[in-house]
Amino acid sequence: MRYRLLETVAEYAAERLDEAGDRAAAERRHLTYYRELARLTDPELRTGRQVAAMARFGTEYGNLRTALRRAVAARDEHEGLVLVHALLWYWNMRDLRSDALHWAEAVAALGPDPFGPDAGPVVPLYEPVAAAPPPLDEARLWEARRGVRMVELINMDHETGRWTTPEGIARLRQITASYSPGLPQTCRLPGSFSVFAVLLVADPGRMGESLDAHVDACRRYGYEWELGNALQLRANLRANRADLAAQAEADAEESLEIFVRLDDAWGVAEALSSRAEARERRLEFHGAAEDFAAAIEYARRIGAQSQMALLRARYAEMLIETGRGDEAERLLREVVEGEHGRGHEPMLAARIFLALLLGRTGRTDEARVHLRRLLEDFGSETLSIFEGFTLGCLGWVDALDGRYASAFELAARAYRSSLGALSMMVAPQMPAAHLIIAAWALAGLGGPVARTAVVLLGASAGLVPPGHREPPTERENRARATELARAALADDAAFEAAYAEGGGLSLEEAAALLERADAI
Fold this sequence. Notes:
By secondary structure, this protein is mainly alpha-helical.
C-alpha cells in the first residue's frame, strides 16, 4: 500500500529540500532507485513471478512516472532510455499504449534520429539494453534509441494513418533496412518489432523470411522465452491463412510448451489464443472454443483485463459457431459495454462479432449501428484492412434487408480495399468473400446485371486461396446468392456458362467487372 501526501505537505517538503540545497540530490536518488526497481523487476514479468512483478509495477507506477518525468526534464537520455525499455513489457501486458507512446516519444526527442544518415551502426547485441544500469556504451545507446522509436509500431492503433503516407512508408523502409534478419537484438523487445515494419510495407516474400529468421535466431542463441514469443507471433500471423493454418497450430503448440515450462501465464494465454485461431481457420470450432476458454483463465490469473476482454470476444465468436448464440451475445454485449475495460482491440472485435450475430438472427438495424460506429472509429485509428472488412459486413447487412443497390456499392468498395498488399498478405480470402455479396446484390437487382452476378459467383469460387475452407456464414451467403442468381437468370445453361466464364477471371478483371456493373 502507498499513501499519497497532501499537495500542501508535498510542497512544504520540497521547499525545505530547496532551502537545504538537497532537492536535486533527493530527486536523483529517487530516479536511480525507481530506475533500478523497473530494470530488475522487468525480467520477472516473463516467469512464474509475473503476478508479484505486475503488482509491484502497479503499486509503484506513480513513482515510476515521476522518475520518467525527471529524466526527461533533466534531459538525461540514458536514464530515460533504460526506464522506457524496462517498462515496455509491463505497458504491453497492461495495454497502456498511450503511456508507452507518450514516454517513448518524449525520450526519443532527447537524442538524434537513430535511423537517419548519421546514426551509429547496427551491431549484434547479446544482452538487453536494460541489462545493466546507465551509462550506456555507444552500441547500447544507439540500439536503445532505435528501440524507443520502434515502440511507435506496436502502438500504431493510435496513429495508423502516419504509416500509410509516403513519409511513413519511407520510415518503415529505413527500419527494415537497418535490421538484417537474425540479429540477436531482434529476438527481444523492442527489436522484434522490426517484424511489424516488414508487415506494414507488405512485402510477402520478406515477411516469411523475417519471421523464419526471427524464430531461427532465437533457437540459435538459446533464448527460450524469446523463442516462445517468436513462435507465437509467427503462429498469429499465419493463423488467418488456410494454407498456413497447420503450420500455425504447430508453432502455437511449441510456444505453449515453452510458456507452460516457464510458468508464464501471459505467454500461455497468447499461445492458446494463436492455436485457437488456427483451429478456427480449419473450422474446428469446438477445439478453438476450448482453447479460448483456457486462455481466459490464464489471463484471469494475472489480472490482464484487456487481454481477457479480447479473449472473451474471440471465445464468444466460437460459441456462435457451436450453437450457443445466447451465451455468446451476453459475453459480446459485456465487452462492448465496457464491463471488461475499454481496450481498442477488444471493442473492435466484440462489435464486429456482435454485428455478425445480429445480422444472422434478423436484427439488422442494430447490426448497422455497431458497424457504423466502427467506421467512425476507423476514421482516425485503425488499419484499412479492418475498415474494408466492416464495409463488406455493412454490404452483407443491406443484402439481407433487400437493399441491393447500397449492398453492391459497399461490397464493391470492400473488394477494392481487400486488394491492398497488406490485406492480400494477411487475409487473401477476403476478395472472394466480397464478390459473393456483390453477386448477391446484383442478382437481387436483376435485369441486365443478373448475368454479371453469376460471373462474379464463378470468379469468387476461382479466386479463393489454396486450402480455403468456407466458414458457415460465407457458405450461407454463397447459397443465398446462388439461389437468387439462378432465379434472376432463369436459364440453367446460361447460368453454367456465365459461372464458368467467371472462374477464369483474375483479381483485376473481377475489379473491372465490378466497375462496369456499377456503371450499368
